[in-house]
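Comment on both lines for my students:
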Amino acid sequence: MSRCTHTDMIRDVTPSAEGCEECLKTGSWWVHLRLCRTCGHVGCCDSSPNKHATKHFHATEHPIVQSFEPGEDWSWCYVDEVEV
């Protein structure tokens, strides 16, 4: 069973926006939101047209996102491709 080797990158963060930061700037839309656990960036999921959370990972190498949806409590490591 795989496990995440990046939990040392998890920080207490303040969300950068109440919705996808980039979509709010461009007037686009999203399906679900993800919170970067390293810096607090809020981006849209891969089911959204612009996939900003994954783009943020590729630009910054911040490995772990957490669901930013009400009632959801899970995290994902992009590097190890496992739930945290």
Summary: The mean pLDDT is 97. The beta strands are 33-36, 42-44, 64-67, 75-77, 82-83.
